[in-house]
Amino acid sequence: MSPRTSEIKPPPVGLRERKKARTRATIQSHALRLFREQGYDATRIEQIIDAAEVSETTFFRYFPTKEALVLSDDYDPELVAAYRAQPAEVPPIQALRSAFREVFGSLDAQQRAEQRERIALIQAVPALRASMLGQFAEAMNLLGDAVAERTGRRPDDFAVRTLAGALVGVMMAVLAAMADDPQADVAPLVDRAIGQLESGLSL
Q: How many angstroms separate the CA atoms of 111 and 134, rounded?
């Protein structure tokens, strides 16, 4: 008998991975500060490199474009890992809701503030909104793969794609809600939105 999904623990994160994560977070934190002080369009990549005290090569290793400084985060792999760790008998949408609750519920005050700041930038800058559409497509594929793995279906199964697409739609609704209230907390909003999806989107 194979172990339950919830009993499979990911390998511990090594020192090298932790250092890379710190470097990445440092660059992004300085970028957000400069965007806040100078505006997104007025801030040059060279200024961010100088503020973070990294080389140009290091910068582009983590962030290939300026847009990536706002759009990129570490949440997708964490969400997939949390989803895979849910008990096998839990239905897919419920497992997704628990995974999002676990990841977003664990954010500290600074991470929540940076999340709100990034979302406000995406809403305010047309180039970021356009790039976000491509990121949503990637997220749908990533979620589709995880759902397919859990349900024993193919990633291109229409029902799998529909569920993954519905969840991406939920996240778009959360972004719109945070545009209306920039101080809103993303964690309860996401949980509420997925809860509505779980109930069949009844009104």
A: 23
**pTM as predicted:** 0.71
- Number of other CB atoms surrounding residue 137 within 10 Å: 12
Cα gap 32→38, rounded to integer Å:
10
d(C-alpha 85, C-alpha 15), whole Å: 23
Predicted pLDDT at 113: 83
Joined tokens for residue 109: 């005050």
- Specify the pLDDT at position 202: 67
Nearest to 8 by CA among 75, 62, 72, 86: 86
What is residue 12's predicted lDDT score, i.e. its pLDDT? 52
Q: Please state, for a pLDDT cut of 70, what percent of the chain lies above it.
A: 92
Which two structure tokens, joined as six digits, stand for 58? 């290091």
Query: Euclidean distance between the first and final Cα of the chain, in Å?
Result: 42
Could you give all domains of the chain from N- to C-terminal order, each with its CATH number?
5-198 (1.10.357.10)
Phi-psi region of 190 (alpha: psi -120 to 50; beta: other; left: phi over 0): alpha
